């Protein structure tokens, strides 16, 4: 029996099981089994699998990486070529793009790499089409743009989300607040810090037993579901922000456009007529969470043209030095910082000082 058949069987069983307190443990078990099989699909067992697709993953350049995911013929290539000025072959038939086409834009001083990924079809997570490689590249992005055709958005949106979820990509979500620590002995130690609706001790034990884990500390710090626990145990999930880009708005009325504007995480554009690109770029910048740090050589004015761009969670002076060159840290005596993160300008700070957007820094060497 192939993996796909087993997965289909489990999905069928889950669909026909009623959801109530008595069956919640059983459903949790099935979910865990499903997650394990999905993982085997993504990373096939055995040594050298057939080599990866030619020219698929692209070297990571710039400060951030954005992937365009969508069905064939929704305008991903047109969007890329109009945003970045890169020529990605465009035609009116499906599957024009067959490999990843990279492009780079400069926005607010940051270099952002855009990847035009080939169209995804249903069943990509089960290895249909080039889906597996496409989604593997999507896992490495800092932001995913799901490009949808405005005339048939919702069906496509659900399908693509389902494909990405099956690959361990979680869109616009925070990692679940669950502490999980394996031990050598001592059984399963289960603690709860707030009331739970779905999980109890038995459910947790049955899910962990499916993974052959019999000794662990589990702490639930928020109201969690069985899926959250499985995500934490699997440990290979990536949490990526996502923007839904509704293309081809030149084909709908103003009233429909007003409704679309109220949907969260959505930007309506027209790639062909280049409408609303500035809104899209602004939203991309918000979701990427980047911080610009300007440099100032001694005795000169700060250089506002080319900032050093860091991710929001790593903005200490130490991270800034490592981004330029790792030898800088050894030579660093202290740094002078101007900007929002200090009490007075300039302030003398050490390597642990955390900077904010558009600060100016001057490094003083030993």
Give a verbal description of the structure.
With 366 residues, the protein is an alpha/beta fold. The strands form four sheets. A six-stranded mixed beta sheet has the order 2-3-1-4-10-11, sandwiched between helices. Strands 13-12-16-14-15 form a five-stranded mixed beta sheet. A hairpin with an 8-residue loop joins strand 14 and strand 15. Helix 2 runs parallel beside helix 6 and helix 6 runs parallel beside helix 7. The radius of gyration is 24 Å and the shape is globular. The termini are far apart. About 2% of the residues have low confidence.
What is the gist of this entry?
With 366 residues, the protein is an alpha/beta fold.
Major beta-sheet overview:
6 strands, mixed
Radius of gyration (CA) equals: 24 Å
Strand content: 15-25%
Chain-averaged pLDDT: 78
Task: Please give the count of helices.
Answer: 11
Low-confidence stretches: 47-54
Q: Gap between N and C termini, in Å?
A: 67 Å
Q: What proportion of the residues is helical, as a percent range?
A: 25-40%
Summarize the helix and strand pattern as letters.
HHEHEEHEHEEEHEHEEHEHEEHHEEE
Note the overall shape.
globular
Work out the number of β strands.
16
State the secondary-structure class.
Answer: alpha/beta
Spatial order of strands in the largest sheet: 2-3-1-4-10-11
